[in-house]
Amino acid sequence: MASERDEAAPGLRVHGLSVALGGRPVLRDLSFDVPKGTVTVVVAPSGSGKSTLLRCCNRLLQPDGGTVLLDGADVDGIEACALRRRVGLVGQVPVMLPGTVRDNLAYGLTERDDSGDAALARALAAAGLDASFLDRPADELSGGERARVTLARALTRGPELLLLDEPTAALDAAAAGHVGETLRRLAGDGLGVLAATHDLGFAAAVADRAITLRDGRAVTGTPEEILGGADAERGAERR
To answer: Boundaries of each ABC transporter domain copy (predicted)?
Structure first.
């Protein structure tokens, strides 16, 4: 899926990232790139540090060592709100706020944003939903619809990169497929995507690049190499 543009595309660069929580090393000297226009997946079991990694990428968590660069600039030098507009994070649980889908999408906007329905409809369309959803009560949405509305809410801010934590958690195969198609389309439009998941089928369907975490360290390779190795490890664990 990736092309030769990957090597030169600006985006997110993680270099030497280390994090310890409660005195226990969680991430150790991680280094990898997330070029814009590509989908990079981090495949590892629960508790391996995937969520910690994502939170470091937009400064929700300060690492103990290493750097995170956005288009070559250290994220520590970027004002936090500005950084989180440029690098959006979609959490594992699709939290819906009270009210309609419109209310949920408008929550992510500021007074400086174009907050008209046209802007909200564009965000919905990018996430694979049509404008008729704007007036739907958020608490009546299915799990797959909630996941895509959460994605649309992140897209209202016009991010350059998108971080996703277990984007297919609790979704059926059809809903997971819709989310995957959406991410591929967004990457095709130039967005950089970093998705942490333990869903190997989803990862195989969307990934241009793949990373796994072993003892807190990053191992990078082609999606075939990384996902094949992860599948073999799971098979060995079941025997």
So the answer is: 12-239
